[in-house]
Design a protein that fits this description.
With 196 residues, the protein is mostly helical. The protein has two domains: 60 residues, Homeodomain-like (Arc Repressor Mutant, subunit A, Orthogonal Bundle), CATH 1.10.10.60; 131 residues, Tetracycline Repressor, domain 2. The chain is built from ten helices and no strands.
């Protein structure tokens, strides 16, 4: 039973990867906004119904795994030992999700470039990142020794927002450098400037 589940998972991942490859090729050829889900389905050789089972919206073709990555981020930060600083725990979380995305650096660059260049994708990406931030609040409050309340603590929210702003700054600059700069070096520079 275990083997068939693993085989099914691998088959599903292969289909998803092929659909994403097809979609990204179409987006590069004719632009994100001009590409329809019907075109992606036809080019990928799947029915539209099957395509919508894998991806609920066109944005999900690019940003689809963000929910799973957000869960992994929260789990990783929560699992850091108590002696690890809040800043380092958040960095460890982002390091983990970067390696868990199952994409080559070139594919990450391609997806990131598309997100930063497309307003609707950028909005969806930002919406998901805000959801990640909200999910992190209780974890960071606990790590900072803050009693949870009905309203999130501004100190925890401030730390989380700062880290996200620095990560997003580093990501955008990494894209502008064509993937040639070290994103974590850019992040450390941004964070050091903010923390003074």
């Amino acid at each position: 039973m275990e083997k068939s589940a693993t085989l099914w998972d691998r088959s599903r991942q292969a289909v998803v990867a092929e659909i994403v490859d097809t979609a990204l090729a179409l987006f590069a050829e004719q632009g994100y906004e001009a590409t329809t889900m019907a075109q992606v389905a036809t080019r990928a050789g799947v029915s539209q119904r099957s395509l919508f089972r894998y991806f609920g919206t066109k944005e999900d073709l690019v940003c689809g795994e963000q929910d799973a990555l957000g869960d992994l981020l929260v789990e990783t930060v929560a699992a850091q030992p108590p002696e690890v600083s809040t800043w380092d725990a958040l960095r460890a979380g982002f390091t983990t999700i970067l390696t868990a995305a199952h994409h080559s650096p070139q594919r990450v660059l391609e997806i990131s470039t598309l997100i930063f260049a497309t307003p609707s994708l950028r909005a969806r990406y930002s919406e998901k990142r805000l959801k990640w931030q909200r999910a992190l609040v209780p974890v960071i409050e606990q790590r900072m020794g803050i009693e949870p309340g009905e309203i999130p603590d501004p100190r925890a929210m401030g730390v989380i927002a700062t880290v996200f702003a620095c990560i997003d700054t580093a990501s955008e600059l990494w894209v502008r450098h064509g993937g040639k700069a070290d994103p974590f070096e850019l992040y450390e520079l941004a964070l050091a400037a903010v923390r003074g």
